[in-house]
Design goal:
By secondary structure, this protein is of the alpha/beta class. The chain folds into two domains: 3-142 and 280-325, Ribonuclease Z/Hydroxyacylglutathione hydrolase-like (Metallo-beta-lactamase, Chain A, 4-Layer Sandwich); 148-274, 3-Layer(aba) Sandwich (Rossmann fold), CATH 3.40.50. The protein is 26% helix and 25% strand. The protein contains eight helices and 20 strands. It has helices at residues 39-45, 53-61, 151-163, 176-186, 197-208, 222-230, 282-292, 307-318, and strands spanning 3-4, 10-12, 15-17, 25-27, 48-51, 71-73, 79-82, 85-91, 99-104, 110-113, 131-134, 168-172, 193-195, 216-218, 234-238, 251-255, 264-268, 271-274, 296-300, 321-325. A seven-stranded mixed β-sheet has the order 7-8-9-10-11-19-20, with helices on one face. A seven-stranded mixed β-sheet has the order 14-13-15-12-16-18-17. Helix 2 runs antiparallel to helix 5. The chain is globular, with a radius of gyration of 20 Å. The relative contact order is 0.15. The model has no long low-confidence stretch (mean pLDDT 96).
Length: 326
Amino acid sequence: MVKGNDHGVISVGLVDIDGVEDGRIRIVTHVHSDHTVGLSKSTNISEKIVATPLTLEWLPVLGHKLPRHKLLPLDYGEEVRVGDLKITFYESVHIPGTAQVMIEFPDGITLAYTSDFKKPGEGTPILSPDVLVIDAVYGRPNYVREFDDIIDTILADAVRELLATGPVYLYGYHGKIQEVMEVLRREGVDAPFILPYKQYQLARIAERHGHRFGDYVLQGTDEAEDIIRDGWFIYFAHVNSKRRLNGVMGNHLILSGWEFSRPYKRIGRNKWLVAFSDHADFTGLLRYVEESRPKLLLVNLPRSTGGIEFAEYVRKKFGIEALLLP
């Protein structure tokens, strides 16, 4: 029914999800690099590249060359048939455009792949298939953030406090930056955002698909220079830019999912690490599995940390058969 490989692909019949084998259809659940593995090969051998409309627009901005005639946009709740399989996308709280995948076989058996997610049952719908494939990114019992439910407010409060002393430079991965832009606006932070070109492109596309970021301007424009002179702004940059911007005056916040003991901590004179993750912690993973109640759980080992432990924990706690993929 389903097979995987060391790169994390989920192959179901003619369909390859987030990796490449020899499927006629390639599904991309979101733009993060570990989920676009082998995409250039897929564009050559696959008949269609299926993703949400936002993801299909983001991929070229991030350097992927996609033949337009092979693109098949699929919105949340829509379905498409591939051979005798029915495929439906469902929303996932992760980065904009992320999709969970549900596949129904001719005999009525269903398989779902969560992809990356957080906030199960509170934004990320919990699917109830016969077979559930899960990415247990934080699959060890000690990977728990007790403050996860309030981290949005904590982050916004920290940014507001630091803005009183100077500009804030905030570092994250593609998609996470746009997620945090929305979070800050939702939490009432109204300082102007300044974005480098690639982040600006991603934001403009996301706005066309319903996301809202308030005021933001492109770095290097006259408007951006005026804002910089005023000294009250938030600058968003890819995490790989933090060394380049190391000497810039201001407050530097680095977003990380690998801090569990406290919401944020100081790591330098004007640097902080903020425990903002776009993945469910161990508790969130368990909630998804418990409420989903699949007949079989497949833990996608290449994209899991502590995947073996997680499968064993699920077997003992819930009595659900749990195996490793591959």
